[in-house]
Amino acid sequence: MMPAGLAESPASAASIEGLPTADFFGFEAMLNAAEQAKLAELREFLAREVAPYAADWWNRAEFPAHILPKLAALELSAPAQRGYSNLFAGLAIAEMTRVDTSLATFFLVHHDLFVEALYGFGSAEQKARLLDDAANLRTTGAFALTEPEHGSDVAGGMESVARRVRGGAPDGGDTWVLNGAKRWIGNGTFCDYMLVWARDEDGGGIRGFIVDATLPGVSRSRIENKIALRTVQNADIVFTDVQVAESDRFAGINSFEDTNELLRGSRIMVAWQGVGQQLAAFDVARQYAVERQQFGRPLAKFQLVQQQLVTMLGNAVASMGMMVRIAQLQDAGAADMPQVALAKSYVSARMRETVGMGRSLLGGNGIVTDYRMAKIFADAEAIYTYEGSYEINTLIVGRAVTGVSAIV
Fold first, then answer.
1. β-strand 235-245 against 218-222: which pairing, if any?
2. 254, 205 Cβ separation under 8 angstroms
3. Is residue 65 within 8 Å of residue 190, measured between CB atoms?
4. Residues above pLDDT 70, as percent of the chain
5. Which of 56, 113, 255, 328 has the most CB atoms in a 10 Å sphere around its CB?
6. Among 133, 103, 113, 127, CA closest to 229
C-alpha cells in the first residue's frame, strides 16, 4: 500500500485536482467518443484492481493470475482486431504502464504477440481451435524468440532447430522434433502455449510453432533476481526432442521476414510503454512536490523543482506526439521499421531522463517502492532494452538515413 499522503493513482490525487494532466496537449481528445469511454473504463479498472496492489506484487515477484478474468472482461484483446484505432491501442498500453508496467508487459506479450500471431499467421483450423480462448484469457500465450546467446542477432544466429519427420504422427501425419533453448520469455513459467521460433534443419529457413507448454521435453524455469518487471514471470525454456504436430506449425511463417509485422507492432507498443512510464513518473513527482514540505514550504515552490517537472512534462508530451504520428502512419499502413525504431529509441532516451529526474526529486523516498517512483525507475530499464535496445534501434535508423549498415 502507498504511504499516507501519496496517492496510488492519478485520479485519487486530491491535492492536484483541477491541475492539467500529463496529457498537456490533449492527445486523448483525438479518440472517438466510444474509445474515450473505454479508456475511462480501463482507468477505473486499473485504479480499483491494480494500483493498490501493484507494488506488493512487484516486491514479491508474484503474478496476479486472479485478475485475468476481470482483465478479459474489458474486451481489449488485440484492440485493432476489435475495431479500435491504433491510437487507442497505444494509449491503452500507456495507461496500463502508467499504473503497472508488469501488467502492461503481460498484456502486450500475450495479445500483441501471441494472439496477433494467431490472427496473422494461423490457419483456419488453428484459429478455430485456439483464438477464442486466447483472446478471452482462458488460455495464455508466450512469444519464444530470444535465446541465451542471441538477442539482437537472433535472426541470423538462431540455434534452436526443428527437424521434420515424415509420417511420424500416430495418424500417419508429419511431426517436427524441436531442440534448443530460449531465454527472457515473458509469461513463460505459466503460459499454456508458446509461439516458438526455430531454424529448419532442412534448408535453414525459420519456422514458427504453437507449442503446448506441457509437452514432454519442455523444461521451464523462472529467471530470478531481476531488478525490473519483477511481476512478469520471465523464463528460461529448454526443448529436448519435443515432438510438435505439423498441424501446430504456423503455415504463414516461412522466414524471419514474415515476422516483421509482428515485431514492428510489438516495438510500437513498447515505445508506448515508454510514454506510460513518463506519465507515471510525472504523476508521482508532481504530487510529491506539491505535498512534500521542506524549509517550511512545498517542494513545488522551489524553482529547480519546477524546472525538473517541466522537463519531465516536455519529454512526455514530445514522446506522446511522436507516438500519435506513428499511430496515424499505422492507420495508413505506412509505418516502416526505421520510423518505428526512431520512435522506440527516442522515447526510450526521454523516458530514462524523465524517470531519473523523478527519482531524484523524491530524494531518499525515491529508492523505496512505497512511493512508486523506485518501481517506475527500475522498470524503465527493461523498456530501454527489450524490443530492440536503444543502440540497435539507433543503428536501424542510421542505416536508413545513410544507406550504410553499421550493425554488421
1. antiparallel
2. yes
3. yes
4. 96
5. 113
6. 103
